[in-house]
Amino acid sequence: MTQASSSRPEDLRQLEHLLPIGFAFLLPYIPYWVILALGGLSILHALVFSPLLIRVTTRQEETRQRFSPGKLYYAVGVVALLIIFHDRLHIAVGVWAILAVGDSASNFLGRRWGKRQLFYNPQKTLEGFVIFWILGGAAAWILMWWNLSGWGAYSPAFLLLCAFLTALLCAIGESLPPVIDDNLAILWIGALSLAALQPAYMAEDVPGSAEPHVSLFTAVIVNLAAAVAAGLLGWISWRGSALAALLGVLVAVALGWEAFAALLMFVVLASLSTRMGFAHKKKLKISQGEKGQRGLVNVVANGLVPAVIALLALGSDYVLLLPFVAAVSTTALDTVSTEIGQWLGRHPINPVSLRAVPVGTQGAISLEGTLAGMAAALIIGSVPFVTGSFPAIWILPVWAGAVAGGFFESVNASLFRHQFKWSDEALNIYSTLFGATAAVCIIQAWEWAA
Question: Which of 13, 203, 299, 373 is deepest in the core (most CB within 10 A)?
Fold first, then answer.
């Protein structure tokens, strides 16, 4: 998707990126141990063979490192998917196809024909984005069908929907400002999307899996009222309030009032914490705008992951309520800890070096802010339990996932100090996704251990 001048080494690199997907056609016909052995060889290739034997595809900065991190992430990530989805290899292959075909084709063709820069990342182009989506989705559809030995339990139309929706989400993730390696971003987002669309369990086996039963009309009326209130109170700009209302309608219809209540609680906690000590924060020039009002960009950065989770849940059940609440808890922890820390934090530190830093330093954490953020995450995680949709045992994984997502953002911001435009917003999106992923992984590990 990158906009750059065409070059033969980069073209060959993309060919090296694409060719391994050919092995996906062999997976139905070879033993699983052979699949793992080939995966081990791919990791060895990334670490040793490629930098030694195929130097023309090794970028200048990788030559100094003596290996390619991107190639290693590609190999390790694909092998991890083949292990995680060992009983549903078509999911691993579908994500792999999006990475191999979508990413390489968008790079190769985007560098030649890409003209329209994406407003949130000038290094990417609209043409590359569309190429990634279309070719990645088509490749995923074909290879999922192939590895299912036919359509299996899924109709061609359903697999097509899964493939293209997942490819679209991966394209969005890959096109964001560079916060994490794009290979990891594609594999991460793709795996979560396909796993959510094709769960390994039946909804009725999951606590709180009843239909939400929220009418569209009721959801619209309630969210219009909430948006007007937020706008009049000055918590969110009018444009931001309009987008937040659309998000609220989607959440209420897809996941029910329990999820909407958690989202509304986030708005209240985030807005109140932003106003607390506002004069002090404004004096230090670290306040949220001139009036402590959050805008359209804040709604997108904080709400994109919850919105996607709600979208994936549309027409189904409460299976995705847990990752949704974990995502909202994560963004609440981040927002509240930042705002309270900037107001009351007396000794902020860099979470990596543990050295004292000035108030407002990117990625810094304080005891006061961290405790406030953890409390906010616990409050939001408890909302579905109070309403009877969560078993009590789910509160701890949701809270732990939020804490993990918060520290992911702080450490990442402290280590890399992203200077690209919109990189802070991109980091918010990925930290929210990290919190939701961590919560699901904790629940899965808990169930396996039991």
Answer: 373
